[in-house]
Specification:
Layout (H helix, E strand, L loop, with lengths): L8 E18 L4 E14 L4 E7 L11 H15 L8 H11 L4 H19 L14 E3 L2 E3 L4 H13 L5 E5 L5 H15 L4 E5 L6 H13 L4 E3 L7 H10 L3 E4 L6 H9 L5 E4 L1 H4 L2 H14 L2 E4 L6 H11 L13 H4 L11 E2 L2 E3 L12 H7 L8 E3 L3
Parallel strand pairs: 5-6, 6-7, 7-8, 8-9, 9-10, 10-11
Antiparallel strand pairs: 1-2, 1-14, 2-3, 4-13, 12-13
């Protein structure tokens, strides 16, 4: 019997794509007027292809990776160790990346995503099938109100409610004094009323003392969840806040994969995990974070790095396989982009985001848009593997 030809990794491409946002996105550490993500495309020896995405928020002002470092890590360090490797053995590729590159979770996640996408496409199945199969076809999706102006955020919230796009709202706070932030949240909570749910994201901006006071104030106005109120490394402070307050306390920046998730679970330092594929180091590691949260009785929330439709679709496939997504998700990234980079946009309706259909992650790029927003032009970001 003739042996089956082994499909191998042939070429890796990593391009920085810069897309303007529909409005300023105000975080505690920066204001974003555009989003830059690294689009990864892997071509395989049988002619198939897989795509993935590596995205940071606000460059180095948010975390330790930037679009420039992500692309450099992929082309300079990751591509050579994956030269001519078997395309279908994603676990082996993950091990090779981990041995060759320390940290750089987002860069690894982008490459791993491309490998999973390529494998699923070759098998003709949705990506979710590679993780056991989807148990849901849509997830409740929050929208972030981040203009920083109460009246503008209220108008935006009402528009989302009226069009049935979102009824969960997360407010970015932490840039102003705590008392001013609480007043801002209260104004929006009163305007939304029973039509929606209000949550906040502090992005680690509060001291523990401010957080004690701030969470009490948020509870009084009916806010249901506070994300990373203190620095992520302060698990003791997070554990104190989790035990002392009725409001759900969510870990985000404190999570960087399974080891940190285990530490948070052991310390009971959160009620909810904001699971991010990129921050976790890839789809496989993100699924392990989900499993730890599920085992520890910690709620799950699908977090975002404000990915385009590529990373968002991949995350949707993964979160569709989790037993319970108790707190929904915030996979709204594509809606923040001023222009769509997918040939067919993801569907947001009835207050949920819907799983795309088709093999792999289920999306196709709009190649004209990709070429237009490519920072370095058509020829940039290509590495012939093994060259």
């Amino acid at each position: 019997m003739k042996a089956k030809t082994l499909t191998r990794i042939e070429q890796i491409e990593a391009k920085i794509i810069d897309v303007p946002t529909i409005r300023g996105h105000v975080l505690a550490m920066t204001t974003m007027l555009a989003q830059s993500f690294v689009l990864v495309r892997i071509r395989f020896s049988d002619g198939s292809e897989g795509i993935g995405e590596g995205t940071s928020i606000g460059g180095l002002s948010y975390g330790v990776e930037s679009p420039e470092s992500i692309r450099s890590a992929i082309l300079t360090y990751i591509a050579p160790v994956l030269a001519d490797q078997p395309a279908d053995n994603v676990n082996a590729a993950i091990q090779r990346m981990d041995m060759a590159v320390k940290g750089n979770n987002i860069a690894k996640a982008a490459v791993e995503m491309s490998l999973w996408d390529g494998l699923a496409r070759r098998q003709g199945v949705p990506l979710a099938d590679l993780f056991g199969g989807a148990v849901r076809t849509s997830i409740p999706c929050a929208w972030t109100l981040a203009s920083g102006v109460s009246a503008k955020d209220i108008d935006e919230a009402h528009e989302m409610l009226d069009t049935k796009r979102h009824n969960i709202f997360k407010l970015k706070i932490g840039k102003r004094p705590v008392r001013e932030d609480i007043a801002h949240v209260e104004a929006i909570a009163k305007a939304v009323g029973d039509r929606g749910q209000i949550r906040v994201d502090v992005n680690q901006a509060w001291s523990l003392h401010d957080a004690r006071w701030g969470l009490s104030g948020l509870e009084d106005i009916g806010c249901t969840l506070a994300e990373q109120p203190v620095v992520g490394s302060d698990r003791a402070g997070m554990a104190e806040l989790t035990a002392a307050h009725r409001i759900a306390v969510m870990a985000d920046e404190g999570l960087s994969g399974p080891a940190s998730a285990m530490a948070y679970a052991c310390d009971r330092a959160a009620d909810v995990f904001a699971v991010k594929v990129a921050q976790s180091g890839g789809l496989k590691r993100a699924r392990e974070v989900c499993a730890m949260g599920e085992a520890a009785g910690i709620g799950l929330y699908g977090g975002t790095m404000l990915e385009s439709g590529v990373g968002t679709a991949a995350a949707l496939h993964l979160f569709a396989t989790a037993d319970r997504m108790t707190f929904g998700c915030e996979l709204f990234g594509p809606l923040l982009f001023a222009e769509e980079i997918l040939a067919t946009p993801l569907r947001y309706s009835d207050f949920e985001v819907h799983l795309p259909e088709g093999p792999g992650i289920g999306v196709t790029l709009d190649e004209d848009k990709i070429a237009r927003f490519d920072r370095d032009g058509i020829q940039g970001g290509l590495r012939a593997v093994g060259a």
